[in-house]
Specification:
The complex is a heterodimer of chains A (284) and B (104). With 284 residues, chain A is mainly alpha-helical. Chain A has twelve helices and two strands, in the order H-H-H-H-H-H-H-H-E-E-H-H-H-H. The N terminus and C terminus of chain A are likely disordered. In chain B, helix 1 packs across helix 4. Chain B has one domain: Orthogonal Bundle (Arc Repressor Mutant, subunit A), CATH 1.10.10.10.
Chain lengths: 284, 104
């Protein structure tokens, strides 16, 4: 099986992988205009170095991280720009956490504000342009799609399980074999929650290092995690004598997932819409 | 060599090159790299970019025999003044070091 490097040729490999990584790093420290200017210059250099191996190119020009470091050493304004962005989007993130901590239903607001802060800090719309300009196939995207489907199935199954449990609670035996049903369900929710948390962390990491589209997946996974935590919290405080009320209340956690999935879809659509070809200036 | 000292020297060399001719950015970087092989080409690019941003160099577009428009660099009046200052500093430093060496 051919590797990505063999399929696209050495220069193609450098161009796509190297420039994509460089673009993503630059966007954190330079405004979009300057980032594109530098990327266009480097694209010209890569093309002029055609025929060189990736290793030779990197030895002479440095890795994307080294290029960024060099540019930062020569441009003190870039660090100030990064600081301003961090303060601006950090303030929005702080507002999101404040909402979650202080208001009833504040988690819903946080579910919207926090992804917005992440999207703004990562310069999502510009990142997606860089990714579109320098496409680089990643196996991880299939896993992300599968993980999104898994989250949906997990939430649907848990909700169906809870509704079934509440409907037939009087006929369900307290023990299955030697296992207590309530404890079994609790363990199941913990395992599912850990899975959702793991996926959210993985996708957040991928959003920074691979593709900003993973941010949508991370938000989706966090929605599923909040749903699972809320269901567990309700189950732990379940009052059998007020089952009529609980029956209705148990639809409430679905809102967490619904908002997560909605925001995730919104981010995905917003980013996909921005994936267009950038017009190029002169080179190097 | 001390990083700051080296940076100043590289800056002076780049400005000197820009004063002599108006090179295509890539060619200038390659030339400098051939003199200072231990310095990555990105370092020259970063210095050139800073000189442009600070107004010591300017860019003009030119077209080669084929391919897209290319960026060429030339020194500005401000750049010339800076180069003279850097050269004077360099001459002074060289003289002082030579004197110290002779005493030693």
């Amino acid at each position: 099986m051919k590797t990505q490097k063999q399929k696209t040729g050495e220069a193609g490999w450098i161009k796509n992988k190297y420039l994509r990584r460089l673009g993503k790093l630059l966007l954190l420290f330079f405004p979009a205009g300057q980032t594109w200017e530098i990327l266009t210059d480097y694209e010209g250099y890569v093309l002029l170095e055609e025929g060189q191996s990736a290793e030779t190119f990197i030895r002479r020009w440095g890795t994307p991280e080294q290029v960024l470091r060099t540019l930062l050493e020569e441009n003190s304004g870039a660090v100030r720009y990064f600081g301003k962005q961090a303060v601006l989007w950090g303030a929005l993130a702080a507002a999101a956490f404040a909402c979650a901590a202080s208001m009833q239903g504040g988690i819903f607001a946080a579910q919207i504000l926090l992804p917005l802060a992440c999207l703004g800090f990562l310069h999502g719309r510009e990142q997606i342009k860089v990714e579109g300009e320098f496409p680089h196939k990643e196996a991880g995207k299939r896993w992300a799609a599968a993980a999104g489907g898994l989250m949906f199935v997990l939430v649907a199954m848990t909700e169906a399980q809870i509704q079934y449990l509440l409907k037939y609670i009087e006929t369900i035996p307290p023990y299955v074999g030697r296992f207590h049903v309530g404890k079994l369900l609790d363990r199941e929710l913990i395992v599912c929650g850990m899975l959702a948390l793991g996926l959210a962390v993985w996708m957040a990491k991928q959003a920074v290092t691979a593709s900003v589209l993973y941010l949508a997946g991370a938000v989706h996974a966090v929605g599923a995690l909040l749903f699972l935590m809320e269901v567990r919290s309700y189950l732990r405080s379940l009052d059998i004598s007020a089952l009529g009320e609980w029956n209705q209340v148990f639809w409430f956690p679905v809102l967490y997932y619904g908002i997560g999935a909605g925001v995730s879809l919104g981010i995905w659509a917003f980013l996909r819409a921005g994936r267009r070809t950038q017009s190029r200036g002169c080179t190097a | 060599m001390d990083a700051q000292l080296k940076k100043g020297i590289l800056e002076m060399c780049i400005l000197h090159d820009l004063e002599k001719e108006s090179p295509y950015g890539y060619d200038m970087i390659r030339t400098m790299h051939s003199f200072f092989p231990e310095v990555t080409e990105s370092t020259f690019y970063a210095i050139l970019r800073r000189l442009y941003q600070e107004g010591d160099a300017e860019i003009f577009e030119g077209r080669g025999s084929r391919g897209p428009a290319r960026k060429y660099y030339r020194i500005t009046e401000q750049g010339r003044k800076r180069l003279s200052r850097l050269k004077a500093d360099w001459e002074h430093l060289k003289r002082v070091v030579e004197e110290v060496m002779q005493i030693g």
